[in-house]
Amino acid sequence: MKKLQFLTSLSLFLVGFLVFSNLQAQNQSTSTLYFPPVGQEIWEKMPVNQTGWDQGKLGEFLAWMENTNTRALIILKDGKIVVEEYRGNRLTGLGPMNEGSLWYWASAGKTLTATLMGIAEEEKLLKRKDRTEKYLGKGWTSMNPKEEKAIRLIHHLTMTTGLNDRGIDLDDTDPSSLTFLAKPGTRWSYHNAPYILLKNVLEAASGQPFESYFKEKIGDPIGMGGFWQRTGKNHIFYSNARSMARFGLLLLAQGQWEGKQIVNNDFIQEMTSSSQGLNPSYGFLTWLNGKSSFKLPAVQREFEGSLVPSAPSDMYQAMGRNGQFLMVVPSENLVIVRMGAHSDTSLIPYRLIRDMWDRFAPVIQ
Question: Name one GO molecular function term (predicted).
């Protein structure tokens, strides 16, 4: 009995020690980060020779990127700019891209919305376990009352609402397009409409326009510009590459900006962890690397292995059509932004991000 008590005490001590060590390492990593001033265009740079990276391999990587129709590329190390390049014309076609040029985030904006949901929950404006109809009202779908009532906010965050995604416009939020296919939480599907409806949820919960709530809670506190705009039936965020990098730095810093907690660290940890067992490579509207398997949009097949095999296993990404990427790598204190176009027009151009890391991994190893 004494031996069992000793082993139990030892196990508890080791668990506590590991948790403490992990938190200490996280705090130490965060304390070394640089944050660009809010309201200013100043952003400190880090010379490549201070990174410890292979400069020759970096040159090869950047040369390859020139042929990928990339319009903006930013690489941050410890919050400082190591690489910042712009190519091609602006989204409007009027003039060349530069640090002030706006570009669309596409589905990379999902991670922005997830973060805003975390802030709203911290402010006790909503709970992820709440029924969706509490905020959208009864009849927001075409399902019977029992089926509709079963859908909760957590299902929107994890892409597991069970709403039918077959043969319809996936951006259509009209109740006539929202029908039953499976019980909530039993099927993972990359269905845009349930995500788009989170805008309405946040407006109902906060009592203010979505854009205003976003600007107040995330945009202004970290000096992030940009705007939300209805594009087709979707709700898309537009900004310059530096604003995307600022948001990535906020995530890397576990939700804080220069010592001020913008979003709860626990929520960031949950958002960037497997949110369900149906697709381990998906958190809260955020893609995860280093998991045992992954699923892709419009495909119910499960693929074995990591989403981006050559990238660090702790990387997580906001990803959008045509290669709008925001990559965060805590183990390397890295934030990588890629905006542009690409011939791979799939909803999540994972081949492009794989190709990027096949060439970038040797740079930092």
Answer: hydrolase activity
